[in-house]
Amino acid sequence: MTSDTPARHGSQPWLHQKGEVIQEFGTVKQFPVALSFEARMYSCQRLNKVLADTQILHGLYKKHHWLMRGATFYQLHLVLDRHAGEQLEIVDALAERVQSLGGVAVGDVRHAAEITSIQRPPNGVEEVPAMLSRLLQAHETILADAHDAAARAAANGDDGTNDLLVSQVIRAGERQAWFLAEHLVDTPLVRV
After folding, report:
1. Residue 128 main-chain phi, psi, to 5 deg
2. What's the helix, strand, coil split of the chain in %, to 5?
3. Which residue has the higher pLDDT, 11 or 142?
4. Phi, psi dihedral angles at 12 (to 5 degrees)
5. Following DSSP, what letter does each residue of 19-44 receive, concatenated?
6. Residue 11 placed within a domain
7. Do 101 and 183 touch, CB atoms closer than 8 A?
8. Is residue 20 part of a domain?
9. pLDDT band at 35, cuts 50/70/90?
């Protein structure tokens, strides 16, 4: 053994390892969850789409949280950060559901960006109403997809996917959209 060869029983990490892909994205391995291959494949495809869009929504929330401006800066800064945290929890729940069905979850934001339906924002800072509208559009995109996917998952007998989409994605999305939409109401901050 030379001085630059790591010892097998030492504490030196084995760096720069390479591995083969052991399961391709878009495949589903057999799991004993009492659902057909077709139901699990369909749910994984739909969940990955919602997952990709939700990862992008999380990123939008963080971007707009950092770039917030104006008289309601502090309130919106806090709300957007809270919503981002909630979206991150949904990302984790969606990814775990895909994995529990035997699929491969979208785990790379570059991959999520390739399959998302959510429009990319400009690199710069938009006006506050435009940022909030962009978040509302993203929510509406996810909600439309989640409603359809939940109904189809239920029709396929996949109650777990239906429950996740309804209880977490849809409920949180509707509540967050309500909070955002109320900031776009044309009400003066101070009455004269």
Report:
1. -55, -50
2. 60, 0, 40
3. 142
4. -75, 125
5. ---SS-TT-----SSS--HHHHHHHH
6. no
7. no
8. no
9. very high
Residues 60-86 as b/e (b if ≥16 CB within 10 A, e otherwise) read bbbbbbeebeeeeeeebbebbbebbeb
Tokens of 70: 């104006």
Q: Which residue has the higher pLDDT, 84 or 13?
A: 84
Q: 106, 101, 117: which is closest to 156 by C-alpha?
A: 101
| pLDDT value of residue 186 | 78
What tokens were used for 8? 């097998």
pLDDT in tens, 59-97: 999 999 999 999 889 999 999 999 999 999 999 999 999
Assigned domain for 21 exists: no
* % of the chain at pLDDT higher than 90: 85
Domain-located, residue 95? yes
Residue 46's domain comprises 37-182
CATH number at residue 136: 1.20.1260.10
| pLDDT tens per residue, range 133-144 | 999 999 999 999
Total count of domains within the chain: 1
pLDDT of 77 reads: 95
- Amino acid identity, residue 150? A
